[in-house]
Amino acid sequence: MTRHDFQPDWSEIFTEVQEHLTAWRREHPQATLAAIEAEAQRVLTRLQATLVQDLAQHSEAAFFSTHPPEERPVCPTRGVPVQPRGAKTRTLRGHGDQEVRLANMRPAPVASRLFSPLDEELGLRSGDLTPLLHERLVQPGNMVPSFGRAGELFTAFTGTPVSETTVRRYVERAGPVLLVLAPPPWRQETTHRTGCIRVSMRHMSP
Do the Cβ atoms of 86 and 106 come closer than 8 Å? Predict the structure, then answer.
């Protein structure tokens, strides 16, 4: 696979979206704007998941087995070219709880069991949320006093349900990342209710 091979055909799904929304509007001639927004958003989340999946999947990192060893990705921990060991599929949850499936080659243990060239290239983190939803979950989780309430707000705005336990796990895991992204002189705080670290974005006086 090369960068010039990418020729996606999205005409069918675009047509489906157009036909569905046209039919829906005919069936709901007096729909409120809120109802129209909600239906359009629901349909477009399916379209978004397909586009994201196809765009992310088109990468040489997903199928490195077709390249000679000297052109393959290098394991960051052992410094050796990764060896293919069959295919795997990672499923993430995006907006509207739509699945984004990423199929790529699994590296052999000679490199690292935890290293995935495609995951590395895409900047994927642990967990089952897409990176954008990952960030949008951590933000209210750090701002709202209750993890349960933060989860409710996240679900309301993204259409992707999460539990209070999930919010807590993502926020606590993000603590060290926030410290890296916002180093001193930003003020650092420790929240006693979770043990995780918060970073205040208010600049401290010199």
Answer: yes
